Amino acid sequence: MASNTPYLVREQPPKALIYLLLVAGLVAITYAIIAQKLLIAVAIVCLPIVILAVAYGFQNPYFVYLLYATYAFFFTTISRYTLKVKLSVGLDIILVYLSVSLLVVFYLKKTNFRLKDAVNIFTLSYIAWIIFILLQLANPHINEEGITHGIRIMILETFVLYIIASIVSNSPKVLRNGLILIGLFTIIAFLKLMYQRYVGFDSSERYWLYVQEAAKTHILSTGIRYFSYFTDAGNFGTVMGAIATVYTIIGFNTRNRKFAIFYLSIAAMGIIGMLFSGTRGALVVPFAGLALYCLICKSIRTFAITIITGLCIFAFLAFTDIGNGNSFIRRARTAFRPTADASFNVRIQNRKEMALYLKDYPFGIGIANSIPKLWLKQDLTYEEGTLPPDSYFVSIWIQTGIVGLVLNITIYLVTLLGCCYIVMFKVKDRYLRHQLAAFTCTVFGILLSGYTGYAPGMPPTNFIIVAMIAFVMNGAYIDKQITQQKLTINKQ
User: Fold this and answer.
1) SS3 331
2) Cα 395 from chain centre
3) Contact 245, 441 (CB under 8 A)
4) Is 366 left (phi over 0), alpha (psi -120 to 50) or beta?
5) Whether the Cβ atoms of residue 474 and residue 483 lie closer than 8 Å to each other
6) Contact 196, 166 (CB under 8 A)
7) C-beta separation of 329 from 323 below 8 A
8) By the 8 A CB rule, do 209 and 215 touch?
9) Which of 42, 133, 347, 450 has the CA that lies 20 to 30 A from 216?
């Protein structure tokens, strides 16, 4: 009999089918346990949860974006413990999933997302880099690996992430939830750091250190460089420096006292993590970030406090020997006395050789390629090797030449200038302005650290850069929402 109800009736699956699936699942679990195939049993148990999560993600792109952020932070940890490589393909899979999720909600017209948010200085300036990379594919020195990396990472993955981040990062709620989420990731990183410090490295970490020879750069005569769950101490230190900068600025400029305590606690963890990483280049993140913050904060009081604090810390590290008994302070201090550091002098010499070699390659030697060099061994024979790129921007220089390096820096510079303009002139809400200023200044610091380390091109640092810039690009729209919320409250 036909239903006369005016409402839509959702067809339920037959009960027999549900019971059949349930029985099949129980039989499969029983078999897996008897056969001691516990991994299969766990997979079967988790399968319904995975199916529900995937279905939910198609209706909620925010959830998938959170999933992407989580995987960006932790997939290198999974790689270390499973000894599996190339897990970065998971980022591509989630990115495709996120793209499809956005298309679904746009098609169903059940969204507050705006496609026009994807058009900004951030995404438009990157088109110039895409064109340059496409031209690089014609470089006679490029190999098959370079072509794959250029198309997959430099063009598709990065550009799609730029667009999606610009669309999704569109509200005060998303901004607040993002700060809380990264704060939770920081707590996990800090707890892992404390475990490494006071309990020791686990078996997987020892394998990485001593079998894969990471100990050469992490177990030093001056002390241990801790890395928590990150790829290495350099990446860990840079991320912690960024966390310290962002959460310090926001912590002192937050209405809610509970949130202020939370943010400042996360900032303290970031400072400790940065020092324990022993990454001298990470110090540029808070110093450069706070320097730019002084210029765009539009507050004489904040400017004065920040300048005085920064100068005191700089004077303490650069002109005194106080605290040299602490290995972390002693190593941090060498960042301000680089000529006395042997590794710094080796870098300078290597870069001189690179400059000489690249003189004839203004467009670089090809994506994913390295500069060849004969290295003198202890037995006075020579071994074929390469000149190692010691940082993110040096790697760009080698692969794409001086032309590519200048273009890459110009794109970042234009984007940062756009961010500064939005923060200073487009955002009226005081607290939001400080939040977006913190993001802009931290991105500036991270990019400067790219002169001494790889972090800006590595996960999760590269994701952090994209996420923060995306929020700033939507600053005016988020500010408008805050204004409307205030008006609604006042009317009530």
Assistant:
1) helix
2) 18
3) yes
4) left
5) no
6) no
7) yes
8) yes
9) 450
CA dist 262 and 416 (Å) reads 28
Calpha distance 66→45 (Å, rounded): 23
**Hey, what amino acid is at 150?**
G
Along the 492 residues of the chain, how does pLDDT read in single tens digits? 444 444 343 444 455 655 566 667 666 666 666 665 666 666 666 677 777 777 888 888 999 999 999 999 998 888 888 877 677 888 899 999 999 999 988 888 777 889 899 999 999 999 999 999 999 988 888 888 888 888 888 888 899 999 999 999 999 999 999 999 999 999 999 999 999 999 999 998 999 999 988 898 899 877 899 999 999 999 999 999 999 999 999 999 998 999 999 999 999 999 999 999 988 889 999 999 998 998 898 778 877 887 888 788 878 877 787 777 777 677 777 766 666 666 677 778 888 888 998 998 999 998 988 887 766 666 667 677 788 788 899 999 999 999 999 999 999 999 999 999 999 999 999 999 999 999 999 999 999 999 988 999 999 999 999 999 999 999 999 999 999 988 877 776
Query: Which residue type is seen at 57?
Result: G
Residues 6+ apart with CB under 8 A from 431: 253, 254, 255
Residue 455: exposure state from Cβ atoms within 10 A (0-12, 13-18, ≥19): buried
Whether pTM > 0.85 for this model: the answer is yes
Q: Are 168 and 436 in contact (CB under 8 A)?
A: no
Q: Which amino acid is at 492?
A: Q
Distance CA 460, CA 243 (A): 12
Amino acid at 310: G
- 72, amino acid identity: A
4: Cβ–Cβ under 8 A, 6 or more apart, which residues? none
Residues 6+ apart with CB under 8 A from 436: 419, 422, 423, 427, 471, 472, 475
Instruction: Round to whole Å and give the CA distance between 108 and 32.
Output: 41
DSSP state of 119: -
3-state secondary structure of 248: helix
CA 298 – CA 333 distance, rounded (Å)? 31
310 contacts 293 by C-beta, under 8 angstroms? no
Tokens of 130: 């895409």
Coil, strand, or helix at residue 238? Answer: helix
